[in-house]
Write a structure and sequence with these properties.
Blueprint (H helix, E strand, L loop, with lengths): L1 E4 L4 H26 L1 H29 L6 H20 L1 H30 L6 H20 L5 H23 L5 E4 L3
Antiparallel strand pairs: 1-2
Helix pairs in contact: 1-2, 1-6, 2-3, 2-4, 2-6, 3-4, 4-5, 4-6, 5-6
């Protein structure tokens, strides 16, 4: 096995520029969320509620469109559950933030596990793979911390964690693609 220099193509440069722009936006949003955690929590919770309302409306529309496919009643009930959950979260963002804390904890924990796995795969491709590993480990730690914390801390906690997670994700995205580009070739 040998390591050779990777030739840049125009397509890779454009992709790299998009990744850099996305990484910078994630870093800026992460800093804003850390500085204003209450605002980030409420904004995330309201967005979550809005998405549930859209999912509910879509599910109900699907139920009416697919009457012949059976299960009309169950599809409608599911749509109503989505819709009512979204309305509840929109009307009660603080209580929604507590429920959102549980969902966010699970999501960040699972994202951390996936990033750790990907980081070990990236160690042969990028010299900056350690940032992805650190981001994944932080996700695992934050996920566990969320589960062990009181849900009453949700109002500031979610915004802070979202900010830290966005910040680290932006950093690893920015540094992973700024390192020396290499490819692995197998010599036989």
């Amino acid at each position: 096995m040998s390591i050779t220099e990777y030739d840049d193509t125009e397509e890779q440069v454009v992709g790299s520029q998009w990744i850099t722009a996305i990484a910078i936006v994630m870093i800026v949003l992460g800093i804003i969320a850390i500085v204003f955690p209450f605002f980030a929590t409420i904004a995330s919770t309201v967005l979550f509620g809005f998405l549930f309302i859209l999912a509910g409306i879509s599910q109900i529309a699907y139920a009416f469109q697919s009457r012949g496919a059976g299960q009309f009643l169950w599809k409608t009930i599911l749509g109503l559950l989505y819709l009512l959950s979204g309305i509840f979260v929109m009307l009660n963002p603080r209580e929604g933030a507590i429920a959102f804390t549980i969902v966010l904890g699970i999501t960040i924990f699972l994202q951390g596990i996936i990033q750790v796995s990907l980081a070990f795969q990236m160690r042969w491709i990028s010299s900056n793979w350690g940032w992805m590993l650190m981001s994944g480990l932080m996700g695992i730690i934050f996920g566990i911390y969320i589960w062990s914390s009181s849900p009453l801390h949700a109002v500031w906690f979610i915004g802070t964690l979202i900010g830290i997670n966005l910040l680290f994700d932006g950093i690893w995205m920015l540094t992973l693609h700024s390192g020396e580009k290499i490819t692995i070739s197998h010599d036989t």
